[in-house]
């Protein structure tokens, strides 16, 4: 049932047991750091709950539910910044209705920390005393921001980063990325399968990681090769990020265009079409912003990984490097004293904090590069 989500043995065992002996709670909150496949997991549980096969994963009914086309499995995603009352109200109103096709009705609510208080209040009574056939699967990357009134009514299921060995197996089996590169990408993913998937997609495609690392190596003191001397490595690094952001913009735009064509074909009335168009456009914008932020964070994490590796090698502990597929270059580059790399790492840590706080991503990176220059000048 959970083949698509690597690792997470404890949550899997918990739900398998509850499904088998019928001891399911009415409200779960799947919580843990981002990138662990929690939403995919919640959807799979939802499929198992509404499909008459119990979630074989192979039949037409499972397939329909996975596509989001099963009337008893609903996924409530925020449309703007937050999940608003207007999104919740109609669903609460129809909660008491019998399931359409299944024996149960399931709601999956990603980013439940984004529930507006009035929307949460509307939901609370249903979460507290739900009709027997209703199940809620709430998901959050930020448990500390979920309203306590929601948390206290849920069984909290904790997701943890998975091991490097599990990530490595996932990269091999799903993407065919193996060897030293597979090991390096597993270490760089720090237990997040979604980050691992992004690195693997890059490794099999644009290979931006290699470009980023080349510029970071120069930022950390590697001399320029011919032809590179005139351009600043910081500017070149940001140009790689720009390329990635442009690609993300194109991809989300294409997906939106396809969705708009579907809407024209499906909805009969112009009023319905307008409503669907508005939702599709909001979704596309949210998706683009989310992926842009991830791309910036991934780029920054590569900077941090390289500096950390240089520091590790300079300290004489080569075995612990993350970018183990670049071990020779790291050994050749790490000629400065460990303190130099430690100071660069401090500058990068500030940028990382800013990025996680959603400060303008490019400004945060530019400020970091400026601090790098100061460190280099005073070295
Ligand atoms: Zn099935």
In short:
The protein has 15 helices and 5 strands. The protein has 379 residues and is an alpha/beta fold.
Structure characterization notes:
- The chain has 15 helices and five strands.
- The protein has 379 residues and is of the alpha/beta class.
- The protein has a five-stranded parallel sheet, with helices on one face.
- Helix 7 crosses helix 9, helix 10 crosses helix 12 and helix 12 packs antiparallel against helix 14.
- It is elongated and about 70 Å long.
- The protein binds zinc ion (ZN).
- The site of zinc ion (ZN) has 7 residues, from helix 3.
Keywords:
60% helix, alpha/beta, binds zinc ion, 379 residues
Please outline the helices and strands:
Elements: H1 9-21, E1 27-31, H2 38-50, H3 60-66, E2 73-75, H4 85-93, E3 105-109, H5 117-128, E4 134-140, H6 148-151, E5 155-158, H7 164-175, H8 179-189, H9 193-203, H10 208-219, H11 233-266, H12 270-314, H13 327-333, H14 338-356, H15 361-378
Parallel strand pairs: 1-4, 1-5, 2-3, 3-4
Helix pairs in contact: 4-5, 7-8, 7-9, 8-9, 10-11, 10-12, 11-12, 12-14, 14-15
Q: Note the main sheet.
A: 5 strands, parallel
End-to-end distance: 56 Å
Which class of secondary structure composition applies to the elements? alpha/beta
How large is the count of helical segments? 15
Helix content: 55-70%
Rg, Cα atoms, Å:
24 Å
According to DSSP, the number of beta strands is 5
Q: Spans with pLDDT under 50 lasting ≥5 residues?
A: none
With strands numbered from the N-terminus, the spatial order across the biggest sheet is 2-3-4-1-5
Structure ligands:
zinc ion
């Amino acid at each position: 049932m959970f083949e698509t989500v690597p690792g997470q043995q404890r949550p899997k065992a918990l739900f398998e047991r509850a499904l088998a002996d019928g001891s399911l709670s009415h409200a779960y909150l799947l919580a843990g750091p981002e990138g662990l496949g929690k939403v995919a997991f919640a959807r799979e549980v939802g499929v198992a709950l509404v499909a008459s096969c119990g979630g074989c994963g192979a039949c037409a009914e499972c397939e329909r539910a996975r596509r989001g086309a099963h009337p008893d499995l609903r996924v409530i995603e925020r449309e703007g910044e937050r999940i608003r009352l207007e999104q919740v109200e109609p669903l609460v109103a129809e909660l008491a209705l019998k399931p359409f096709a299944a024996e149960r009705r399931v709601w999956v609510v990603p980013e439940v920390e984004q529930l507006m208080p009035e929307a949460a209040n509307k939901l609370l009574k249903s979460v507290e005393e739900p009709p027997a056939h209703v199940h809620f699967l709430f998901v959050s990357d930020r448990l500390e921001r979920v309203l306590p009134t929601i948390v206290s009514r849920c069984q909290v299921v904790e997701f943890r980063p998975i091991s490097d060995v599990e990530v490595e197996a996932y990269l091999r089996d799903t993407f065919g990325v193996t060897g030293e590169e597979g090991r390096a990408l597993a270490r760089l993913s720090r237990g997040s399968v979604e980050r691992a998937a992004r690195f693997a997609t890059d490794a099999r495609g644009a290979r931006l990681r290699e470009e980023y690392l080349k510029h970071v190596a120069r930022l950390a003191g590697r001399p320029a090769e011919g032809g590179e001397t005139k351009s600043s490595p910081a500017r070149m690094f940001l140009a790689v990020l720009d390329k990635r952001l442009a690609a993300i913009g194109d991809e989300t735009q294409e997906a939106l265009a396809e969705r708009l064509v579907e809407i024209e074909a499906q909805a009969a009335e112009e009023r319905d079409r307008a409503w669907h168009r508005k939702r599709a456009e909001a979704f596309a914008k949210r998706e683009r912003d989310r992926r842009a932020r991830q791309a910036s964070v991934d780029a920054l994490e590569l900077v941090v990984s390289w500096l950390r590796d240089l520091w590790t090698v300079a300290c004489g502990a080569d075995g612990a490097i993350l970018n183990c597929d670049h071990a020779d270059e790291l050994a050749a580059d790490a000629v400065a004293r460990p303190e130099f790399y430690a100071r660069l790492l401090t500058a990068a840590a500030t940028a990382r904090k800013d990025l996680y706080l959603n400060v303008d991503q490019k400004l945060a990176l530019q400020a970091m590069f400026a601090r790098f220059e100061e460190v280099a000048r005073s070295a």
